[in-house]
């Protein structure tokens, strides 16, 4: 009888040790994120062991996140922007063509994505067209203005046929309810496991922008891996508003999903009015 008990004890001990080894081995692997398109995306986060400071170590294609010289976001110091006369030359080359768009909304685990299902909205720069593809949201803002963060920031993404990128950044501050984004906010998935939601009503992008369209322009990067450089940024000076309830709704899903401020490294920042 004693031999049976000893045999059972050692069998149990072997099973426990095997499970422990499996758990330790698994914890050392960077988990893969499940993308709804069926592709595996290497995990990234905004804190913890694979946080912003560790992005370049996750995969070789993320190297620009840690070693790039033209990274975003930046702090915009108004007094250091290029004079109006030179900036006006840039403004004459830009045309913003915004109208209504239908959006598919999803939570990718890092932000809320609103992807355009139509491709007729665009920005034209020096006779080159960049099609509007969608928008993401961040809290607090990613860019700073004179060292100050805003409550949130929206990024409106555009891409040319050659793959060149233009992004318009909108600061968001507490105020009146944003009726333009009301349905999108109501349909925001609270987790990445929820299905993509198609909005019933179009959003008029022209109504999303502030009335005064003075912008700060500079060359930067994507603010998330792979942190690709060569992105042409236009940051609207005047913020749009969202109600306290709308901002709290976003913060109930993402408490903080912004990237830290990056070094300017001698880049020029221009200020001018968009047409």
Structure description:
- The model is unreliable at 2-44 (pLDDT under 50).
- The chain has seven helices and 18 strands.
- The radius of gyration is 23 Å and the shape is globular.
- It has two domains: 1-27; 69-273, Alpha carbonic anhydrase (Carbonic Anhydrase II, Roll), CATH 3.10.200.
- The chain is α+β, with helices and mostly antiparallel strands and 275 residues long.
- Strands 4, 6, 7, 8, 9, 11, 12, 13, 15, 16, 17 and 18 form a twelve-stranded mixed sheet that branches.
- A hairpin with a 4-residue loop joins strand 6 (103-107) and strand 7 (112-116).
- Pfam families: Carb_anhydrase.
What attributes does this structure have?
18 strands; two-stranded antiparallel ribbon; single chain; twelve-stranded mixed β-sheet; Carbonic Anhydrase II; alpha+beta; disordered N terminus; 275 residues; 7 helices
Topology, pairings included?
Elements: H1 2-27, E1 32-34, E2 40-42, H2 55-58, H3 64-67, E3 75-76, H4 84-91, E4 94-97, E5 100-101, E6 103-107, E7 112-116, E8 122-125, E9 128-138, E10 144-145, E11 152-159, E12 165-174, H5 182-186, E13 197-198, E14 203-204, H6 205-208, E15 214-221, E16 229-236, E17 240-242, H7 244-251, E18 270-273
Parallel strand pairs: 3-10, 12-16, 12-17
Antiparallel strand pairs: 1-2, 4-8, 5-14, 6-7, 6-13, 7-9, 8-9, 9-11, 11-12, 15-16, 15-18
